[in-house]
Amino acid sequence: MKFYQEPAKKTPIAAEVDVLVVGGGPAGFSAAVNASRSGAKTMLIELAGQVGGMATTGLMSHWTGSTQGGFYEEILDRSHEDPKHRQIINPEILKFEMLKMLNEENVELRLYTMVVDVIMEGNKTVGVITESKSGREAFMAEVVIDGSGDGDIAAKAGVPYYKGREDDGKMQPVTIMFKVAGVDTERALLPGSFETTFDVPGGDLQTLAKEHIPHPAGHVLLYRTTLPGVITCNMTNSVDIDGTSAEDLTKAEYVCRSQIPHIVSFLRKYVPGFEECYVIASAANVGVRETRHFHGEYMLTEEDILSARKFDDWVVTKAHFNFDVHSLTGPGLDETGMQKEFPQDNSYTIPYGCLLPQKVEGLLLAGRNISGTHMAHSNFRVMPICANIGQAAGVAAALAVKHNGLPRRLDVGHIQAVLKKQGVDGLQPAASSPN
Ligand SMILES: Cc1cc2nc3c(=O)[nH]c(=O)nc-3n(C[C@H](O)[C@H](O)[C@H](O)COP(=O)(O)OP(=O)(O)OC[C@H]3O[C@@H](n4cnc5c(N)ncnc54)[C@H](O)[C@@H]3O)c2cc1C
After folding, report:
1. Taking the complete model, does pTM exceed 0.85, yes or no?
2. For residue 384, what is the domain's CATH number?
3. Which of 21, 33, 60 to mutate to test the pocket of ligand 1 (most atoms within 8 A of CB)?
4. How does pLDDT run across 179-232, given as a tens digit for each residue?
5. In terms of DSSP H, where are the helices of 177-220?
6. Residue bearing the CA closest to ligand 1, atom 15
7. Is the same domain home to 377 and 301?
8. Are residue 42 and residue 134 in the same domain, yes or no?
9. Which end of the chain is more exposed for a tag (fewer CB within 10 A), N or C?
10. Which range marks the domain in which residue 407 is found?
11. 24 and 150 together in one domain
């Protein structure tokens, strides 16, 4: 590869804050609101022109899985449209509610801005470098929270990581979500999981999809919205994509978009209620499920989730979902079938150590990029759990600012005491007593 040596440049410092959150998805948004609420001067930097991440830009259907207590409930209180189905997302409502909440909490917000590098003092992050229409800028902070989904900041800072599945590095497929209107929702069949299928006049619905929708798409996942006649489709599929490669993302954009007309024709022909359907919207971005797994002070494992483990140093409690690994080669579930056979009804906790990256100080992980194995990640990656991880990261960051900007030095009991006051059910006595 050839290289171009850039000349050294002076970069203007655009802001100096206590807590800087990168990424405004469910995790980063929650971290920013809660850091500010906990008294820190907080700034959120987001690449897109809106906040919400996959929940809004990704045109997501619904909040899946559960947590009880904590900030996720507050997001639902503020943004749900249908009291009977609070988890269904109307991205247009959510986008603005999130902006209002950031505004109410005095979080400084910068949209349309990509973080491209970190500023380090020794092994401590002290800021980030951004690129945007405003040019190249520096933002300085006592504590940085990485809510970028892919962990762009942790990677630049030198936190060790691997990508994808432990044995071969393969990552979950990517998808462009889209919505169709003109559906007769009274008659519509809505398979909400890979295992849900229906007998339709042409045969078994999921089998027909594999036959008639171009590979590697070929499953039917359809979700009700709050709007009349509108259904969200989670049906495009592109495999062997590394979501941290712009080249791969560009390829996936073409693959997924080329599947949409075929999927719509399939829905019209084979799925009752969809005879007159047509596309009204698609996500602005390819939705990426999985990329980097960082080494944290603790790495959450599938055994922790299967045993519904209660950690003394919990910062997220009552998390529940199944293992959700989509096939890495085509439509449907991965070959382990772990989703189908998920045996645990009880919830688990996430310890503070999963948010603390190895080797780097002044940095917290939040959202799908916390430290966890491929299989554990397939569970905690859902948005309710990511939102409550963000809440914990925001509280911890604000507390760390009062303790020399070093989250690792923080007594987890202090974090737990604040979280309990905010409605997070503690489950366990704190490892050390807060004061
Ligand atoms: C296709 C698909 C379907 C899914 N279905 C569901 C579902 O039905 N229910 C559910 O609960 N979960 C679902 N998930 C999982 C869930 O959406 C994500 O795992 C979750 O949104 C992760 O939250 P996050 O805040 O960590 O990251 P994200 O939501 O990905 O947000 C990260 C944010 O960071 C920004 N960002 C990234 N890099 C930078 C940078 N360098 N500088 C500045 N900003 C940056 C991005 O623009 C984005 O806004 C789905 C995921 C996918 C991909």
Report:
1. yes
2. 3.50.50.60
3. 60
4. 999 999 999 999 999 989 999 999 999 999 999 999 999 999 999 999 999 999
5. 205-212
6. 382
7. yes
8. yes
9. N
10. 14-165+291-421
11. yes
